[in-house]
């Protein structure tokens, strides 16, 4: 899957390659939390502890060349899976091992909080969103089941070019679809998709998301001067998916995206919030839930996630794992807990 040149570039960027097609990398928010400098917005929104979260992917290949992505264009692209299929247990064990090795060096830093570092040795959450398109890994359900059996939650992000894979997805703690544009023309310009029927695939993926009973979210990466337009059309697409949550987050001027976009394409938090409010005008069943200024992100949630004036948008992880172990049908509302400050 990877050329020697691409692999060397990724390793220079502190990626650790697992087997034939997977990778892990320490998230910046994990580093921040270890130093007591705050946590990822997923902690504020959903209750995930950044120091116990592992950022990884099961596929370094992707079917898009998104302009805002931090990946370089040396990274592989493909419409179909063409490679050896590594075993789920091999991928998980290898990822956990590399995560531990990457974090081991932090123990000697004076500003690292040792109680948080000790916690970090036990991974409790996985963000399947590092790079590439993780949902195309042929044994994704087996890997997710394995993670859940070890009481590791799963947040999986897909670019919505594989509706059939979304349909096959059995279970995940929270499923994301990246919604990068409100219309067909802009989506092609921003995502640079390999598939000619990219717009149809996106719409099919949104419809498949609507059928899922576990927690779901739409993420919009807001790029100033490019896709912060047509809020009513974003709303129409969001309604097709009927997600529990909508995250609107600023594009960040980092990595290889700096060769394709400009720093002025990065909106301020207030601009992100203003655009979110415009989208919300067309989504009466949602309302403002939370925000994190440091990440320039705003969260909308369905009104049903508010009980007696208080949000219950956090995940009750213990309950989630119990529900999964019983192998019975359940819904997102079955593993909610009160949002904490």
- Kindly give the count of domains: 1
Overall 3D shape: globular
Number of strands: 14
Q: Can you count the helices?
A: 12
Give the proportion of residues in helices: 25-40%
pLDDT averaged over residues: 93
Q: Which blocks of ≥5 consecutive residues have pLDDT under 50?
A: none
What would CATH call the class? Alpha Beta
Q: In the CATH hierarchy, what is the architecture at level 2?
A: Alpha-Beta Barrel
The fraction of residues in strands falls at: 15-25%
Query: What is the CATH H-level superfamily?
Result: Aldolase class I
What would the CATH topology be? TIM Barrel
Our measurement of the CA-to-CA distance between the termini, rounded to an integer number of angstroms, reads 43 Å
Cα radius of gyration in angstroms: 19 Å
Q: Biggest β-sheet, characterized?
A: 10 strands, mixed
Computed structural class: alpha/beta
Q: Widest sheet: strand order?
A: 1-2-3-4-5-6-7-8-10-9
Reading the helices and strands in chain order gives: HEEHHEHHEHEHEHHEHEHEEEEEHE
Task: List the keywords.
341 residues, alpha/beta, TIM Barrel, ten-stranded mixed β-sheet, two-stranded antiparallel sheet, 12 helices, 14 strands, 18% strand, globular
Task: Give an overview of the whole structure.
This protein has 341 residues and is of the alpha/beta class. The chain has one domain (4-326): TIM Barrel (Alpha-Beta Barrel), CATH 3.20.20.70. It is built from 12 helices and 14 strands. The strands form 3 sheets. Strands 1-2-3-4-5-6-7-8-10-9 form a 10-stranded mixed sheet, sandwiched between helices. A hairpin with a 3-residue loop joins strand 1 (16-18) and strand 2 (22-25). Helix 9 (198-211) crosses helix 10 (231-241) and helix 10 packs across helix 11. The longest helix has 17 residues, at 88-104. The relative contact order is 0.12.
């Amino acid at each position: 899957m990877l050329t020697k040149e691409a692999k060397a570039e990724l390793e220079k960027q502190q990626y650790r390659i697992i087997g034939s097609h997977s990778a892990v990398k320490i998230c910046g928010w994990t580093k921040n939390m270890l130093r007591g400098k705050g946590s990822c917005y997923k902690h504020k929104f959903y209750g995930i502890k950044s120091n116990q979260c592992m950022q990884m992917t099961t596929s370094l290949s992707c079917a898009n060349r998104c302009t805002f992505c931090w990946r370089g264009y040396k990274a592989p692209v493909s419409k179909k899976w063409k490679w050896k299929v590594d075993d789920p247990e091999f991928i998980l064990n290898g990822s956990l091992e590399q995560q531990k090795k990457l974090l081991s060096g932090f123990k000697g830093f004076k500003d690292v909080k040792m109680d948080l570092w000790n916690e970090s040795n036990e991974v409790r959450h996985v963000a399947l969103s590092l790079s590439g398109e993780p949902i195309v890994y042929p044994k994704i359900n087996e890997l997710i089941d394995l993670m859940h059996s070890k009481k590791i939650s799963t947040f999986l992000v897909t670019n919505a070019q594989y509706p059939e894979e979304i349909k096959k997805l059995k279970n995940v703690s929270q499923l994301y679809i990246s919604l990068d544009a409100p219309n067909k023309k802009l989506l092609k310009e921003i995502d640079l998709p390999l598939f000619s029927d990219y717009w149809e695939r996106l719409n099919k993926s949104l419809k498949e998301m609507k059928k899922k009973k576990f927690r779901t979210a739409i993420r919009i990466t807001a790029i100033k001067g490019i896709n912060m337009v047509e809020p009513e059309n974003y709303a129409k697409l969001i309604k097709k998916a009927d997600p529990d949550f909508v995250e609107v987050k600023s594009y960040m001027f980092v990595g290889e995206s700096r060769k394709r976009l400009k720093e002025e394409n990065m909106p301020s938090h207030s601009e992100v919030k203003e655009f979110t409010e415009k989208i919300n005008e067309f989504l009466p069943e949602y309302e403002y839930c939370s925000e994190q200024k440091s990440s320039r992100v705003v969260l909308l949630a369905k009104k049903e996630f508010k009980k007696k004036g208080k949000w219950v948008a956090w995940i009750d992880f213990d309950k989630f794992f119990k529900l999964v172990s019983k192998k019975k049908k359940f819904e997102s509302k079955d593993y909610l807990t009160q949002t904490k400050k």
